[in-house]
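Reviewer comment 2.1 asked that we show a complete input and output for one of the modelled complexes. We chose the flavin-adenine dinucleotide case, as it is the one discussed in the main text.
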Amino acid sequence: MDAKLRPKPEIMIAGAGIIGLSLALELQTRGFQVTVLERNTALQHASTAAAGMLAAKDPHNPPALLPFSHFSLSLYPAFLQRIESLSGLSVPFQTDTTIQYMPDGSTQQLAEHSVDPRQLAAALLAAVRATSIDLREHTELRFVTEDNQAQLHAETNNGTFTPDKIIHTQGAWAHPQVRPAKGQMLRVQLPATLPLCEVHRSEHIYVVPRTQGPQAGTALIGATVEDAGFDTVVHPVGLAHLRTLAAELLPQLADETTAPQVEAWAGLRPATADSLPLLGSLSPGQFIATGHFRNGILLAPATATIMADLIEGKSSAIDVAPFSPARFDTA
Ligand SMILES: Cc1cc2nc3c(=O)[nH]c(=O)nc-3n(C[C@H](O)[C@H](O)[C@H](O)COP(=O)(O)OP(=O)(O)OC[C@H]3O[C@@H](n4cnc5c(N)ncnc54)[C@H](O)[C@@H]3O)c2cc1C
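Response of the prediction step:
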């Protein structure tokens, strides 16, 4: 058959976090038939636990992440525009500036945005639902086998699927080389004397104000980075520690009477041993995109583009060798 007439491969994506759904949207736009499996409900894990900083300029990010981060940042306006045109929901930038507190006591003013991941999640999900993407919630990918015709069989609690390709985007649950890094966070009401409109961040703590939408006038204080398995319980001692650190940057946040807590939660970041993502192929039919650790909201648009290019056999806009899953084979 003429290659142009041949139907594009059917793609299955396992895991409906921001990575899985951003990739689903990109592949669907490029003409692929996409099914997404989600064992719970979409966007309920790390992707809605995040602060939403697009922290490409954070000096504490691994240097190898820099080109990837800047590429993703360059894609963000079009990413949000595509989501808005499909969903009718706009996702505003909440902040445009970050004050970075350096270890030597100096500060830097960075031109950097943040979004509200819950707003982004609602819009992304509505965008996905406005397309032909087949999102199947409460459907867990249990294991994958390949028969002697190289056909993949994806076994789930809701039957067997036979896609042409499978992309694993199950976040902290995606791969043996990925471990959960627990992050506890709290949201506080800002005092009238502290009308923040910029992020304040050091190596150990950040304060991220919400300036637009239903949470305007509040700020997130986060986040712990803990090796606690898959535990997502919030502990008062963890929150108290975050407040103490935040008060070193903004003293008014120390006090529950001036900055009362609105809510608190914990999420599981997908982390690798070198804090870099896992992007690439695991076998001819299976791919992985996870391990985005502290930057999955920032890195979602570039991940979608790079993985879709890989599926289409196109070369990547940036060097993805540092993110190859094969780097752990020899480790
Ligand atoms: C406290 C905190 C603060 C953060 N702050 C920021 C920030 O400011 N900026 C930033 O860029 N990033 C931030 N992050 C990181 C970011 O949230 C993550 O990197 C990103 O959300 C990872 O997305 P994901 O889609 O890979 O994972 P997830 O959102 O966890 O999605 C994975 C999905 O896979 C599903 N799943 C698992 N196993 C299966 C299976 N077998 N079958 C089907 N489905 C399955 C899960 O149910 C889940 O829905 C933060 C994270 C935390 C926890």
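The first helix runs from residue 18 to 29. We note this here for comparison with the apo prediction described in Section 3.2.
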